[in-house]
Design a protein that fits this description.
- Helices cover 44% and strands 17% of the residues.
- It is of the alpha/beta class.
- The protein has two domains: 207 residues, Spore Coat Polysaccharide Biosynthesis Protein SpsA, Chain A; 78 residues, no CATH class.
- A hairpin with a 5-residue loop joins β7 and β8.
- The chain is globular, with a radius of gyration of 20 Å.
Length: 304
Amino acid sequence: MNELVTAVITTYKRKTEILQRAVESVVHQSWRPLELFVVNDYPEDGTLGEGIEIMLSEVQKKNLDVNIQYIALKHNSGACVARNMGLALANGEFISFLDDDDTWEKSKIEEQRKGFLSDSVGMVYSPFYNVGFDNERKLVVRGDESGNLLELLLYRNIIGGTSMPMMRTSALRDIGGFDSELLSSQDYDTWIRVAEKYEIQFVSEPLTVRYLTDESITTNLRKKEQGWKYFTKKHMKYYVDNKRAFEYRLSLMISEIISLGDNKFVDEVLNEYQNYYGNKIKVVYMMSKIKLMIKKMLKGTIIK
């Protein structure tokens, strides 16, 4: 059996000291053997790139048993392209991805690797911590199920972001890696495609730390909207016969997009998919608009 595990950190315009925090959480893992690819998705900033290389060189000197490699893309290409680059280079039987502003607990790789109980398991996931502006850790458990999770995943992303799970490298290659056409929900789409072919195993120990910052909670509305429509059309074959799952996802989208101020997009979606939901969605729609109106009133703004 191949004992090597591959870790991939993709980075974009991240301050070197924050990236170093992520890098050190990888090289300090209890599991060995281990390789780490750091993929820079913003090579246009040569000074930043040089700083990353210097930092990685210093970390490498202190962790000689971990093979650290720095890869700069030819130009800014997006997180999915950067992750797929790491996937293409991976030598490990298992692979985990880490966002450049998150960290792993020391036993992350060791504990999740235990979850691959058979060849049918393509991914292992765990709870995680959110760390807010007050630096307080809050436990997040999105799901605790194992086995065939496709139907459950149709409702919502119970796995979390790309920093949370570990995958069998061959399984991720089998499904074609991450879809670079998606502008949001790239992780969720990947989990769906893994679940189509493989079982998913839950490990109960929280193993990832997600840091919430002004940057991480900033929302690009257009990317959210493109991601929802692209994802929905891509996986609509499942929602045709699963009205409850579609209504659940639709209700989440309505609440989020209206809160971000785009009623027009929600109206377009409701018109396009009116055959796939019932009257309760109209209640969700009206309640979301009322909540937004109240929020604006409390802020003393004028509602048009």
